[in-house]
Each structure stands twice: as structure tokens, then as C-alpha cells.
Design brief:
The protein contains nine helices and five strands. It is α/β, with parallel strands linked by helices.
């Protein structure tokens, strides 16, 4: 039988995933949200039937990696420009950003059709929703999650300005460094 994963985000669903599922796929917006998700899953695991077997908690993060940090930043900023207005209040709170700060971005993109202006308005606080930069920056940002017990990292789009190149960088530089501790 294939494993059953829950794409859980809310506290109740995270607890339920730990109790009943084979794994959970929470989007970690920002990646440091792992430290808020893990205790909730652990609550569910404390009620888990022994016969269910091991549990896999995936750390699902948005990543944009490239040797050119500016290009990597642009790729993630584009993603944030498109989705930033639709985030939950909890994510805005974690980022230290007010929902209203996304209004001009949304207007530029959806009303004016000016993607370049919308992307230019995405600031570093907004970009903290994901991980962006060169390999060393990505490693530094993810290392605390691995040190805290994350064993399954799931890298989501945009991956970078060149997804194939990004996958190579993740496989050649990031994953070996994270496996080595």
C-alpha cells in the first residue's frame, strides 16, 4: 500500500497527520516555520498507534538558487509577487509583513499588467518566505532545520532562474553539505 501523506498547514491537521498519516507535507513559509510545525506533529505522534510505523515530516520550502544571486532573487520575487497577496495572516505575521503591503504589488501585476514593477516592489522581508541565493546561502538557511531533525527536504518552485541548473546545484553542493552536517 502506498504511503499516505497529508498536505497539512493548520495546527489540527498537523496533529492529525502525526497521529494517523505516514507523513506530512507542510509548506514552510518561511522555512523556519519548521520549528512551529514539529511540536504540533509531535503531539499527534504521541497518540499514534504503534502499528502505523515510522512517520516522515517533509520540510517543504520554496527555493531559488543560482550562482548569480540577483537572478535567483528575481526568480523568487516573481513567485512572491504572484502569490504574496493570497497568504494567510499567520504567514504575514511570521514574515513581519502586513497584508496591505502586497496591495500595490497585486495592483501592478493584476490590474496594470506590469510584472516588472510588481517584482521590483517585493522586498527582502517578503522574500524571506523562501530561500534565495547562492549555494552557501541556501545551505546556511537550511542547516538549522537539518540540525533540528529534518530528514526530508522538499524543494519547491521556482528553484531558480534555470530550474535544471538549480537542480544540479542542489544535488552537487547543497545536499552533500547538508548530509555532512
Amino acid at each position: 500500500m502506498p504511503p499516505i501523506y497529508l498536505g497539512a498547514m493548520s495546527p489540527g491537521m498537523l496533529r492529525l497527520a502525526g497521529e494517523l498519516a505516514d507523513g506530512a507535507l507542510p509548506l514552510l513559509f518561511p522555512p523556519e516555520h519548521y520549528f512551529g510545525v514539529k511540536p504540533l506533529v509531535d503531539e499527534g505522534l504521541s497518540k499514534r498507534a504503534a502499528g502505523l510505523g515510522p512517520f516522515d515530516l517533509a520540510a517543504c520550502v520554496w527555493v531559488s538558487i543560482d550562482a548569480d544571486r540577483v537572478a535567483a532573487r528575481h526568480a523568487l520575487a516573481r513567485k512572491v509577487a504572484y502569490y504574496g497577496h493570497a497568504l494567510s495572516p499567520l504567514i504575514y505575521e511570521r514574515l513581519g509583513v502586513a497584508r496591505a503591503e502586497f496591495d500595490p504589488i497585486e495592483r501592478a501585476l493584476m490590474v496594470d499588467g506590469d510584472e516588472a514593477r510588481a517584482v521590483a516592489m517585493v522586498d527582502d522581508r517578503m522574500l524571506a518566505i523562501g530561500v534565495v541565493g547562492e549555494a552557501a546561502e541556501v545551505i546556511a538557511r537550511l542547516r538549522p532545520l537539518v540540525a533540528a531533525g529534518a530528514r526530508h527536504l522538499s524543494f519547491g518552485p521556482p528553484l531558480g532562474p534555470n530550474p535544471s541548473k538549480a537542480i544540479e546545484l542542489l544535488g552537487r553542493e547543497v545536499l552533500p553539505a547538508l548530509r555532512a552536517g
